[in-house]
Amino acid sequence: MADSYDVVILGAGTGGYSCAFRAADLGHSTALIEREKVGGTCLHWGCIPTKAFLQAAEVAEHAQDADSYGVRASFDGMDMPALVKFKNRIVEVNYKGVESSLKARGVDLITGVGRLKDARTLVVQTDEGERTITADKALVLATGSKPRGLPVEGAEVDGEQIITSDHAIYLGKAPQRPIVIGASAVGVEFATAFRGFGAEQITLIEALDAIVPQEDVDSSRALHRDFRRSGMKVMVGATVHKVEKGSDGVRVSMESGDSVEGDILLVAIGRRPVSEDMGLDDAGVTLDQGYVVVDEYCRTGLDWEGGAQYAVGDVIPTLGLAHASFQEGFLVAEHAAGQRVTPIDYAGIPRVYYCHPELASVGSTEQELSEQGVEFDKRLFPYSHNARAMMMKGTGHVKVLAGKHGGRVLGIHIVGAHATDLIAEGQLIYNWEALPSDVAQFIHPHPTLSEAIGEAHLQLAGRPLHG
Ligand SMILES: Cc1cc2nc3c(=O)[nH]c(=O)nc-3n(C[C@H](O)[C@H](O)[C@H](O)COP(=O)(O)OP(=O)(O)OC[C@H]3O[C@@H](n4cnc5c(N)ncnc54)[C@H](O)[C@@H]3O)c2cc1C
Fold it and tell me: Alpha-carbon Rg of the chain, whole angstroms?
């Protein structure tokens, strides 16, 4: 095997493998180096396993609520080993799919631990010994991230009573009184899953003053209301001060003096980049709090005659989402091939939360527009006015923010059933800089949830239908 390739990528998660796919499709000889399994966090620990869990939680919630639809069913609890098997099957099929796509495209997959020697060279420790791999056009760092620990007394993760998402997807039994610290995507998704699995009491703790704090104020409030209504204990502005483990559970004490007890503690306070102990510092890569610093083309600033070093995915300080890393992977492969590429507008990448109700958004929040002094109009169309949502007994809304007096759409925020799918339309509206009147020309299929998007735009365009 050659030890020099046009494109060399370290890390085969979504950022790394998407870059490898595109580089190979563009005719580049490509090497992808991975120490574990192709697919990385998203496929083995993140997006896919957690959504399989949430799908099961939804089935369980439907079983618990079936009577109200006139359906006789009963919920007798979770068979967690069976759920883990279901999840593993989905992961396995997708894993095989990515592996065979790499093979079909002629990407050389090298199993081993990579270390940066200089801007364009990696030394890879494989089972057969050390290999030195050099990039001619692009060396891409795509080493991803890992869960952040909670830096307070007693909160060391043990994988049993105190866990992260990595352990939660292998739970042998459904927790009865789980405590979740951190109310961003991972936290609200697991809180939802635990509720579906039939937990007696769920406590969700967030240090900031709102759950899903990066989101639009109305989305955050709607989700908070829904969680509370379902019996979840939601604590915001609550800073954890100490964690104590006992034989039958965990106690979490807050700085306020409050404390809560549970059978398991899930630490979901975010992730940190994987950038240590791989020679990045010595090779001159600029790091900021562990993140690799890049420009708008994902270049690290290190280059050589005819080539450059890049970084993509969770190791750079952009959106920690798989589809953001896909977009970065493609951008890098095309830039390295000399194509004209447009820097990514990160506000145009949908943010998605698969809690129930789901939450998704694209563009600016109301808070951001106010801070920037942008004048805007807004309309909020409630799911309670949408026939399809009523059948799903779904709460939620679609909120659209647009420039004052008919200006372009600046933000779309959806809470409710299928928000994560519906936002795909919002993504096109936002990125194509549509006006509400452009969208209002197209009447949405009836009865669908998508009508809520149409109705909000109809209102903004001064042509309301049902609202
Ligand atoms: C619980 C959870 C749920 C999530 N759900 C979603 C979701 O629904 N939608 C979404 O868009 N995003 C979701 N995410 C985020 C998403 O998983 C990440 O944004 C994405 O996986 C980042 O991809 P990456 O390629 O940057 O890194 P990773 O997927 O982490 O891949 C990095 C790879 O590099 C390898 N590596 C690291 N160092 C070396 C080395 N020195 N040598 C060789 N190999 C190395 C690692 O083994 C790993 O396979 C979720 C994350 C979590 C934790």
Answer: 23
Q: Report the nearest-CA residue for atom 8 of ligand 1.
A: 47
Q: Give the catalytic positions in this structure.
A: 446
Paired with 311 in beta bridges are 141
Q: How far apart are CA 187 and CA 419, in angstroms?
A: 18
pTM for this predicted structure: 0.96
CB-based contacts of 439, cutoff 8 Å, min separation 6: 409, 429, 453, 454, 457, 461
Cα separation values, 235 from 11, 185, 267, 356, Å: 37, 16, 15, 18
Over the stretch 246-257, which tens digit does the pLDDT of each residue have? 988 999 999 999
Q: Provide the token pair at 238.
A: 């609550």
Taking only the tens place, the pLDDT of each residue in 90-140 is 999 999 999 999 999 999 999 999 999 999 999 999 999 999 999 999 999
Cα 329 to ligand 1 centre (Å): 13
Ligand 1, atom 3: nearest CA belongs to which residue?
46
List, as one string, the DSSP characters of 16-54.
HHHHHHHHHHTT--EEEEESS-TTHHHHHTSHHHHHHHH
Q: Which protein residue has the closest C-alpha to ligand 1 atom 35?
A: 11
Q: What lines the ligand 1 site, CB under 6 Å?
A: 10-16, 33-36, 40-42, 45-47, 50, 113-114, 142-145, 165, 186, 274, 278, 313-314, 320-323, 325, 352, 354
Give distance in angstroms: CA of 451 to centre of ligand 1: 35
Class of residue 465 by CB neighbours under 10 A (exposed 0-12, middle 13-18, buried 19+): middle
Residue 305: CB partners within 8 Å, gap ≥ 6?
none
Q: Are 160 and 327 in contact (CB under 8 A)?
A: no
